[in-house]
Amino acid sequence: MNADAAVSGRAFGAAASPSLKELLTEAAKSVKYPDTDQTVYQKWTANKPEPEVGNLGGGSDHLAFYTHVGVPSLNAGTSGVTPYHSAYDNMAYYTRFVDSTFRFGPMVTQVFG
Questions:
Q1: DSSP bridge pairs for 53
Q2: Any idea of the CA torsion for 60, 23, 33, 45, to the nearest 10 degrees?
Q3: Nearest 10 degrees: CA dihedral of 47, 51, 57, 63?
Q4: 39: burial class by Cβ within 10 Å (0-12, 13-18, 19+)?
Q5: Are 7 and 104 a contacting pair, CB within 8 Å?
Q6: What pLDDT, on the 0 to 100 scale, is given for residue 17?
């Protein structure tokens, strides 16, 4: 499970190896989305018949496990405008602009769990 940018906004999204896509989708049905009466799955599928679970690509920490060793892998979290890997990628930015309530990190952790 890759979570190097697990909380970068409020829009949940994921990519996974084929064997984990259904498991990830089912897990999202049992986790509450912060500050709503909806689940992560319901927010993820808003205006869509089913969630879009992408295929894993290269360029992240899951790469060696997935493509070299063949370990089923996933990359999931929330996205948005982010200063990822910049001088502004710090707790002050995160607290002010990304997740001032600190509820989205636990949400992603629950989906993984």
A1: 14
A2: 90
A3: 140
A4: middle
A5: yes
A6: 94
The neighbouring-strand residues paired with 54 are 15
Q: Which residues, listed in sequence order, are joined to residue 16 by a DSSP beta bridge?
A: 74
C-alpha distances (whole Å) from 102 to each of 14, 16, 49, 94 are: 20, 25, 29, 9
- If you search the block for the tokens 């996974």, which residue do you land on? 16
Give the integer Cα–Cα distance in Å for 15 and 57: 8
Q: Per the confidence metrics, is the pTM higher than 0.85? A: yes
The share of the chain scoring above pLDDT 70, in percent, equals 100
Task: Name the amino acid, one letter, at 87.
Answer: A
- 17-21 long-range contacts (CB < 8 A, ≥24 apart) are 17/56, 17/66, 17/72, 17/73, 17/74, 19/72, 20/72, 20/73, 20/74, 21/53
Q: How many of the other CB atoms lie within 10 Å of CB of 93?
A: 14
